[in-house]
Design goal:
Layout: E1 14-17, H1 23-34, E2 39-44, H2 48-61, E3 66-71, H3 79-90, E4 98-101, H4 119-140, E5 149-155, H5 167-191, E6 194-200, H6 206-213, H7 219-227, H8 238-248, E7 260-263
Parallel strand pairs: 1-2, 1-4, 2-3, 4-5, 5-6, 6-7
Helix pairs in contact: 1-2, 1-8, 3-4, 4-5
Keywords: Oxidoreductase
InterPro entries: NAD(P)-bd_dom_sf, SDR_fam
Family: Belongs to the short-chain dehydrogenases/reductases (SDR) family.
């Protein structure tokens, strides 16, 4: 069958999208449904209503899709084991074709400048943004068939010189990029899968709006993100990110592996 005759590039696939209740995660889940995913599990941190809204959107796109949502805390010692076990059970599946580690850890109520950063805050960022995604992959690995796709949602903050209070967040995402490359080196060839991270730039989500409205991020930093650091002179939309993740989840992306893929509209043009 030629690619032009395939009605949905992700038809029949089983996917996990952590942090899929809203923002980028919701957009990815919705995009997957439109591309034919048969079964999908999403996680949420605390907002079950938002998760229900996402499931309703998926059902509207495809009434036959089997979907589930459950709470998961990226700081939990059993985060990865719980997510994998609940996915397999709730979706009645033995395999997981696509994993999108999207759930971020970023506590705007605990975002001090680097000079007063506590070890606990730093450890939480590293646990939530680097350790948890890696553990999710490792726990899911026995259930990922050949042709599987693993996509870690990173950030351009991993490559930038960041202002306060973004410094430790950027460091945690840099750790995720490094771990992604290493996981690809160790596991991709043996298991026939691809493992990539996506470098997301400034995108219109609650993660950006909350610190902006609360005055945590300097206004000049917000203005710079919107006007200077993208080729199109705008902030990203969640659908922009979802399209790139959808491509990486497909067969057509098979020759992209162990890479950090930009999804940022030309952010950091000088570096690229």
């Amino acid at each position: 069958m030629s690619t032009s005759t395939i009605p949905a590039p992700l038809a029949g696939k089983v996917a996990i999208v952590t942090g899929g209740s809203r923002g980028i995660g919701r957009a990815i889940a919705v995009h997957f449904a439109a591309k034919g995913v048969a079964k999908i599990a999403i996680t949420y941190a605390s907002n079950s209503s938002a998760a229900d809204e996402t499931l309703a959107q998926l059902a509207k796109i495809n009434p036959n899709i089997k979907s589930t949502a459950f709470q998961a805390n990226v700081l939990s010692d059993t985060f990865a084991q719980d997510v994998v076990a609940k996915t397999l059970d709730s979706l009645s599946t033995k395999t997981i074709d696509i994993i999108v580690a999207n759930a971020p850890y970023a506590n705007t109520d605990d975002a001090p400048p680097i000079a007063t950063l506590s070890k606990k805050t730093f450890d939480n960022l590293m646990t939530g943004n680097a350790w948890a995604p890696a553990q999710l992959f490792l726990n899911a690995l026995p259930h990922i068939p050949r042709g599987g796709r693993v996509i870690m949602i990173g950030s351009t903050a991993s490559k930038a010189a960041n202002p306060d209070p973004v410094v430790p967040y950027g460091a945690s995402k840099a750790a995720l990029d490094s771990i992604t490359r290493s996981l690809a080196l160790i596991y991709s060839a043996k298991h026939g899968i691809t493992i990539n991270s996506v470098s997301v730039g400034a995108t219109k989500t609650e993660l950006l709006r909350s610190p902006e409205e609360g005055g945590v991020l300097p206004q000049e930093f917000i203005d710079m993100l919107a006007s200077k650091h993208t080729a199109d002179r705008r902030l990203g939309e969640v659908e922009d990110i979802a399209g790139i993740v959808g491509f990486l989840a497909s067969e057509e992306s098979r020759w992209i592996n162990g890479n950090n893929v930009p999804a940022n509209g030309g952010s950091m043009l000088e570096a690229q």
